[in-house]
Write a structure and sequence with these properties.
EC number: 2.7.11.1
GO molecular function: ATP binding; protein serine/threonine kinase activity
Distance between the termini: 86 Å
Helix content: over 70%
Number of strands: 0
InterPro entries: TAO_STE20_kinase
Family: Belongs to the protein kinase superfamily. STE Ser/Thr protein kinase family. STE20 subfamily.
Protein name: non-specific serine/threonine protein kinase
Low-confidence stretches: 1-122, 570-577
Length: 577
């Protein structure tokens, strides 16, 4: 797997898991402030409803609708947390007339806008938000640096493995070239040795032929000498025998004896000359036949020597080819082992980097979870600390509304009193004033009781609502963080599964590649062995055919010269001379 595929596989969706949630926290903060403002508005509406009820009852008691008091202005929103919340409240502000801020609220917003003109004036919340952004950016940059470092490590390992494989292939190529050169040198040396042996055999055959010829000549000379000596002995014996026969007959004249002796001498000499000529012819025939047989034997030895040299050369070529094939198989096995080892090294590093990345992601997520929980805890603690102040301000607003309502009712009662005094006789003025005073006192007491009850209900509801909201925020944050952790775990499991599947595919591809290369190598070995066997068969066949032609031609020439079978002749050896 290349580094590009690894970068593609490990893209940045986990950044949303690691560094998300900040916007949700701000939205929850704005939602809580808006909810508090609405709660305060509801409390004011309750007071307003109670006041309207008392006013309506008062007006009905005094006969007719009369003048209704003006509606109460809504209470102030909760105290501002920081200056940045003014803009958010301006965005989420309700457009209804009864929810518009009071003059003090507007003055605070104006003060915030004035403060925003100064770059150096920042609230603690803005500083904290800026620090969080800096932490997130630093965390993201560190994550990116880690990813780039992992990519660099993978690329460096791939380059190192590629260089190692190139060096391995170059070494194998040098081994094959060295073996080919050694094979060529050994075959050349064998050819030279065969040439030298052939020359030696030719010289030895020539020397042997001369030796045997000399032996035959010497033997024939010895036979001729013995034959001549025997003829001389026979001649002397015959001569002595004839002389004895002639001496036994003394009546034979001397001339007749001489003539008879001369005639016998000529007959014996002619007979001996014929026998000697016949012996010389036989010796010459034996010599020629022996020389021919010797040449045939030399030819047979040369053929055997050529066969032996051919067999040695072919065996040498076969041995060299087997060594070359064994070298190729050993190189293929070493290449397979190196490829498997390199793949295991690359996959091991990839798994280690993925585990390190997952560990970093998990640590960042845990750090993010802890930071979110700490921020929520600080926020809740701040809300708890600010709750008495907020409740006091709401209580002051309700009391101010009560005072304004009392003033309005005083004005209404004064107007009603003046009207009653004007339309009633003077004698009834005292009773009317007394009844109006009692009615006003009763109404104010009821109104005060309603306002006091509203304040108690508002405080109880605000405290309960704050606890419920904080508990809901904790549960929501816990659920959100749990969901984000589950998403991170699912993403990491998916990444591990993809990596394992990729490793399995790479291993299968390597096995297929190895099997294909081994099949090609075995096919190449079989083809080379078949070619070598074919060459061996053809060369042996050509050698036998040539030798057979030479032997047939030699035998035909021998038959033409009158020699019969020459294979049964026996020649004396060198140590028998």
């Amino acid at each position: 797997m290349s580094s590009w595929e690894y970068r593609k596989m490990n893209t940045a969706p986990n950044n949303c898991i690691l560094f998300g949630g900040r916007r949700e926290g701000v939205q929850q903060s704005l939602f809580r402030e808006t909810t508090q403002g609405k709660d305060a508005f509801k409390a004011g509406c309750v007071l307003d409803a109670g006041r309207h009820g008392s006013d309506s009852s008062s007006s009905s008691e005094h006969g007719g609708p009369g003048k209704r008091p003006p509606p109460l202005s809504p209470p102030f929103p909760p105290p501002l947390q920081d200056h940045a919340c003014v803009r958010d409240e301006a965005v989420h502000r309700d457009a209804r007339p009864e929810l518009r801020p009071t003059s003090s609220h507007k003055s605070r917003a104006l003060d915030c806008k004035i403060c925003e003109r100064f770059a150096t004036i920042k609230s603690a919340s803005l500083i904290q938000e800026h620090e969080q952004d800096s932490e997130l950016r630093e965390q993201m940059s560190g994550y990116k640096r880690m990813r780039r470092q992992h990519q660099k490590q993978l690329i460096a390992l791939e380059n190192r493995l590629k260089a190692e494989m190139d060096e391995h292939r170059l070494r194998l190529q040098k081994e094959v070239e060295t073996h080919a050169n050694n094979t060529y040198i050994e075959l050349e040396r064998l050819a030279k040795r065969h040439t030298v042996h052939t020359d030696k055999e030719i010289k030895a055959a020539t020397a042997e032929e001369k030796r045997i010829q000399q032996q035959i000549i010497a033997q024939q000379k010895k036979e001729l000498t013995t034959f001549v000596d025997n003829q001389k002995k026979e001649y002397r014996l015959c001569k002595d025998k004839i002389k004895e026969e002639m001496n036994e007959d003394p009546s034979t004249p001397k001339e007749e004896k001489q003539e008879r002796l001369s005639r016998h001498k000529e007959t014996v000499q002619r007979s001996q000359a014929e026998d000697e000529a016949h012996l010389l012819d036989q010796q010459r025939l034996v010599y020629d036949r022996s020389c021919r047989a010797l040449k045939r034997r030399t030819l047979v030895k040369r053929h055997e020597f050529e066969q032996e040299q051919m067999r040695e050369e072919l065996n040498k070529k076969k041995t060299q080819k087997e060594m070359e094939q064994a070298l190729m198989i050993r190189q293929d096995e070493s290449t397979q082992e190196l490829e498997h080892r390199q793949l295991q090294t690359l996959q091991r590093l990839r798994v280690e980097l993925i585990l390190l990345q997952h560990q970093t992601e998990l640590e960042n997520q845990e750090e993010y979870n802890g930071r979110r929980q700490r921020e929520l805890h600080r926020k809740h603690a701040l809300e708890q600390r600010q709750q008495p102040q907020n409740l006091k301000m709401l209580e002051m607003q309700i009391k101010k509304q009560f005072q304004d309502t009392c003033k309005v009712q005083n004005k209404q009662y004064k107007a009603l009193r003046n009207h009653q005094l004007e339309v009633s006789p003077k004698s009834e003025h005292k009773a009317i004033l007394k009844s109006l005073k009692e009615e006003q006192t009763r109404k104010l007491a009821v109104l005060a009781e309603q306002y006091e009850q509203s304040i108690n209900e508002m405080m109880a509801s605000q405290a309960m609502r704050l606890e419920e909201e904080q508990e809901g925020e904790c549960q929501a944050l816990k659920q959100q963080l749990q969901q984000e952790m589950e998403l991170l775990d699912a993403y990491q499991s998916k990444t591990k599964a993809q990596t394992e599947a990729q490793h399995e595919r790479e291993l299968q591809m390597l096995e297929q590649k190895v099997s294909l290369c081994r099949a090609h190598l075995e096919q190449k070995i079989e083809e080379e062995l078949a070619s070598l066997q074919k060459e061996r068969t053809e060369r042996i066949k050509q050698l036998f055919e040539r030798q057979e032609r030479e032997m047939d031609a030699f035998d035909a020439e021998s038959a033409r010269l009158g020699f019969g079978s020459l294979g049964s002749l026996d020649f004396p050896k060198e140590d028998e001379r």
